[in-house]
Amino acid sequence: EADIYQTPRYLVIGTGKKITLECSQTMGHDKMYWYQQDPGMELHLIHYSYGVNSTEKGDLSSESTVSRIRTEHFPLTLESARPSHTSQYLCASSIQDNSPLHFGNGTRLTVT
Amino acid sequence: DQQVKQNSPSLSVQEGRISILNCDYTNSMFDYFLWYKKYPAEGPTFLISISSIKDKNEDGRFTVFLNKSAKHLSLHIVPSQPGDSAVYFCAAGVGSNYKLTFGKGTLLTVNP
Predict the structure, then answer these.
(1) Could you say which residues from 9 to 28 on chain B have a Cβ atom under 8 Å away from some Cβ of chain A?
(2) For each of chain B's 112 residues, which pLDDT tens digit applies?
(3) Is the CB of A103 less than 8 angstroms away from the CB of B32?
């Protein structure tokens, strides 16, 4: 079973606040991903990391930023949250390209 | 432009019968296809995959069929069980996980 953890599970925050969504995996996977999903919609890749100190933006433009200082940790930060950021954020990892993604349980963010 | 389409938002099946979930794609470059299952308040879980060099892949009760000429794939679950009730996402990629394109999902309900 995949060991990938996201905190918090739910977050309600006011406009303008800075937030960090945490994602950690204990599998030693090099590849890590952040997806964004609105209810009833597709998952969209917003960030990707090949490994430590390597990050790229995904297909869906996002005002969030990520960092990868350690293999196991891939946090996502929003400097100034807005209601348009309300969504579910899913973190995933994989051992290599072309191998299945292991997802965390997600963070449901609501910005009021 | 939706490159991966799951045209049935929901499907209801009786326990013990076959569930067939469908997925169409438009990008002929896709060569790697996956199905994920998602329970409420959890992240997606990898179910089964198929590469474009095959037209069928089987894993227990789950079989994925790929029709490249029709750009269509389907997931068959036989026999369906109540525990299979979940949202099923179809995803497609070109050679790697980096830019997987997901469908919107189909909610499967298996009635006892």
Answers:
(1) 9
(2) 679 999 999 999 999 999 999 999 999 999 999 999 999 889 999 999 999 999 999 999 999 999 999 999 999 999 999 999 999 999 999 876 677 899 999 999 999 9
(3) no
